[in-house]
């Protein structure tokens, strides 16, 4: 379906002198013109007079076509079922592509993530007497391979993959909502407003999908569990609904500084580069990697506290309970 928009434009021509020549139909010659561009077409009529021109008027019509110009036929659908993807709205296709890419990335990095979880929760798992005794990277790798085999490196990956879709959907919807809330009277969004909207959207999506994150940790580090449903039933039966939100405090606390540090480091590093390099794609990728690394290192202690609070039988009830137990500055919680 085509949408038409008619616009009338009146402009003064300084170099044009007025004339008293009468205008009649006998001296008017209609002239049709067509201007074709990549995105739209403009069509209108102009008036050309035999003699001095007293004024000029232009009426233009702009026709906008739908972005989707191709629809597969029934025969094409029967021969190539994948042609159904052409009927999917653009926004939905981009969201689905992002979800698939996120799930693939989480699956590829799942072994490293599980090793990290074992290193973070080792003290709680072995008992309070071993809280100061950590576990090394190589030791964690060999422990998983020896006790569980190759499949053990991907243990607990399913709830992590399932979490991607609702997390992304809630985050996108919440971000647009918070942008309207923090925007000014003229509709503009300041840097602080953008940071606040991003932080609030991250906290909202984390809160909604947090139970899946707890299930992922329990399945990955606690022995005896093989399915996500079994973990969930045992948690409900033995610990109650509140156990699905254990460690939520440090999770929410860590989101705002992570976004702020990430944004600030990205902006500072990019501005420090020569102007000819700032707009390059590889510059954005490298700058994003640096900013994400710095933000992750600074906020990592809160992530360690969150993981240990998610464990069954954890001695920590609040964030403040975790730090004095180590008797050392918070950065010792890095577990590296």
From TrEMBL:
Subcellular location: Membrane
Pfam families: Mito_carr
Coarse class of the protein's main subcellular location: membrane
Keyword terms, alphabetized: Membrane, Repeat, Transmembrane, Transmembrane helix, Transport
Solcar repeats: 89-181, 189-272
Transmembrane segments: 284-302
Source domain of life: Eukaryota
Membrane topology annotation: Multi-pass membrane protein
Similarity comment: Belongs to the mitochondrial carrier (TC 2.A.29) family.
Protein name: Thylakoid ADP,ATP carrier protein, chloroplastic-like isoform X2
């Amino acid at each position: 379906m085509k949408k038409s928009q008619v616009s009338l434009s009146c402009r003064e021509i300084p170099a044009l002198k007025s004339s008293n020549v009468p205008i009649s139909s006998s001296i008017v010659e209609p002239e049709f013109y067509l201007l074709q561009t990549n995105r739209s077409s403009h069509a209108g009529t102009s008036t050309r007079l035999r003699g001095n021109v007293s004024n000029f008027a232009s009426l233009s019509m702009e026709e906008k076509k739908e972005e989707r110009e191709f629809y597969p036929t029934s025969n094409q659908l029967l021969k190539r079922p994948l042609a159904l993807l052409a009927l999917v709205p653009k926004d939905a296709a981009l969201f689905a592509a992002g979800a698939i890419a996120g799930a693939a990335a989480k699956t590829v990095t799942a072994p490293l993530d599980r090793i990290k979880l074992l290193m973070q929760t080792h003290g709680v798992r072995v008992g309070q007497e071993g809280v100061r005794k950590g576990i090394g990277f190589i030791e964690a790798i060999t422990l998983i391979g020896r006790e569980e085999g190759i499949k053990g490196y991907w243990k607990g990956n399913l709830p992590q993959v399932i979490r991607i879709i609702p997390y992304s959907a809630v985050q996108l919807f919440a971000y647009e909502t918070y942008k309207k809330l923090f925007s000014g009277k003229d509709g503009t969004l300041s840097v602080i407003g953008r940071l606040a909207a991003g932080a609030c959207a991250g906290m909202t999506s984390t809160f909604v999908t947090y139970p899946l994150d707890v299930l992922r940790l329990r399945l990955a580090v606690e022995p005896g569990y093989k399915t996500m449903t079994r973990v969930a039933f045992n948690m409900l039966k033995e610990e109650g609904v509140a156990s699905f939100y254990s460690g939520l405090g440090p999770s929410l606390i860590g989101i705002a500084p992570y976004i702020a540090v990430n944004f600030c480091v990205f902006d500072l590093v990019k501005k420090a580069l020569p102007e000819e390099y700032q707009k390059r794609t590889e510059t954005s990728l490298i700058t994003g990697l640096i900013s994400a690394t710095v933000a992750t290192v600074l906020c990592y202690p809160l992530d360690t506290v969150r993981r240990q609070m998610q464990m069954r039988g954890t001695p920590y009830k609040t964030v403040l309970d975790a730090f004095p137990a180590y008797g050392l500055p918070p950065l010792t919680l890095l577990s590296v």
